Amino acid sequence: MLDRVLVVTAGPAPGFPVVGMIGGGQLARMSQEAALALGVSLRVLAASPDESAARAGGDLRWGRHDDPDAVAAFAQGCDVVTFDHEHVPGPILAALVGAGIAVRPGPSALAHAQDKVHMRAAVSAAGVPCPAWAVVATAAELVAFAEGLGGFPVVLKVSRGGYDGRGVWVVDSVAQAEALLGEVALGPGVQWLAEQYVPFTRELAAQVARSPSGQVAVYPVVRTVQTDGICTEVVAPCPGLSDEHALAAQQVALRLAEALDVVGMLAVELFDTPEGVLVNELAMRPHNSGHWTIDGAVTSQFENHLRAVLDLPLGSPMARAPHTVMVNVLGGEHPDLYAAYKHVMARDPGLKVHLYGKDVRPGRKVGHVTAYGEDLDALLARAHHAADYISGVIDE
Ligand code: ADP
After folding, report:
1. Is 115 near ligand 1, meaning CB less than 6 Å away?
2. How far is the CA of 168 from the centre of ligand 1 (A)?
3. 51 and 66 in contact (C-beta within 8 Å)?
4. What is the distance in A from the centroid of ligand 1 to the CA of 231?
5. Helices (runs of H) and strands (runs of E) counted in the chain
6. For the chain (length 396 residues), average pLDDT per consecutive 10?
7. 43 in ligand 1 pocket by Cβ < 6 Å?
8. Which helix (H) or strand (E) holds 317?
């Protein structure tokens, strides 16, 4: 299959750098748009021509992110190597650094986005508030952890390899604890992370871009809504969030970016509670909570990620409108998105529709829509209508 794919690359403009991005998903695809506008070249390591970024064309190389030879060959000729996911094994990244290649974020920073136990330990060591947590190995240890917090429910997570809520369970009883720890086999190097169940008011995300020379750009704090573990809606800025909590969330993101030496975009997912904000999770790349920035901010997260890893001056993260709403388009039963997409565009010319060129599978993120303006309720209604229509959940 791969040897029949023709990839034509014209090469970078003289004097302009090449950024290598490992991973060919929609984040790499949206980074390609930003790279084109900036005039820098983005070379993408994709595993198959069906991947979202591969379908967009450009400077594509084929190979897997966990194949040391493929990654090493890919990195040759790149001025900096970065990622559209966090799954490149640490030893492969260490080998790149050893070969003198600029890897941003670096392997020791990225390790915090790869392993939730490592992340919890670093967040706690930095004195940043997060849910109470412990590593557990047996059901008895999980039960003891729960009892220490006053009883169930507690949250159980796999330390590595989970995403979109896969690998996260709310545990309500001893029986469920025993069943889970008995039935789910952990892979090599994976641990069980037990966490206090946080009855949060809402979920937030705070994003910052940070460059190697220490320049930072801080985005407005957003509200995220997760449905069945998948981010479905983002509102920027978070409505009704007090200045105190918004500032605290931004300060947490700045503090962690500095403490963990993050280069590029950092997304900090947080729980808002009446007592303050708690860190849930970190991502060191463009993140779903920042897709609104393409249309809603002066500089998108994709552009600022490229600027940051190249140590270029960062762009303004300011919002363009009082409110921006981003709603993910999840795959439904209909494989054909094109007819629905035409209807949505005709119905609402103010809406921005982004589709990722992916095959449709139920529940899979295949695109997003963004609406920005003054009337938040109207924006929410418009964005949800469009996403539901494209998904096929509604037909009028
Ligand atoms: P993933 O890495 O798969 O995105 P997360 O750790 O972000 O997993 O958890 C997914 C979702 O589960 C969160 O967005 C939140 O809704 C819920 N969740 C995670 N941890 C907790 C917790 N300690 N208390 C309450 N809900 C939680």
Report:
1. no
2. 7
3. no
4. 11
5. 12, 17
6. 62 91 98 96 96 94 97 97 96 97 97 97 98 96 97 96 85 95 90 98 98 96 94 97 98 98 98 98 98 98 98 98 98 87 95 96 96 98 97 90
7. no
8. none
CA of 267 to the centre of ligand 1 (A): 14
- Among 280, 285, 289, say which to mutate for ligand 1: greatest number of ligand atoms within 8 Å of CB: 280
- Contact between 122 and 282 under an 8 Å Cβ cutoff? The reply is no
The ligand 1 atom at the shortest distance from the C-alpha of residue 199 is 25
What's the CA-to-centroid distance between 338 and ligand 1, angstroms?
A: 33
pTM above 0.85, yes or no: yes
Domains (ranges, CATH) in the chain? Answer: 18-103 (3.40.50.20), 132-196 (3.30.1490.20), 202-391 (3.30.470.20)
According to DSSP, the residues that pair with 328 across neighbouring strands are 368
| Residue 106: closest CA among 126, 86, 125 | 86
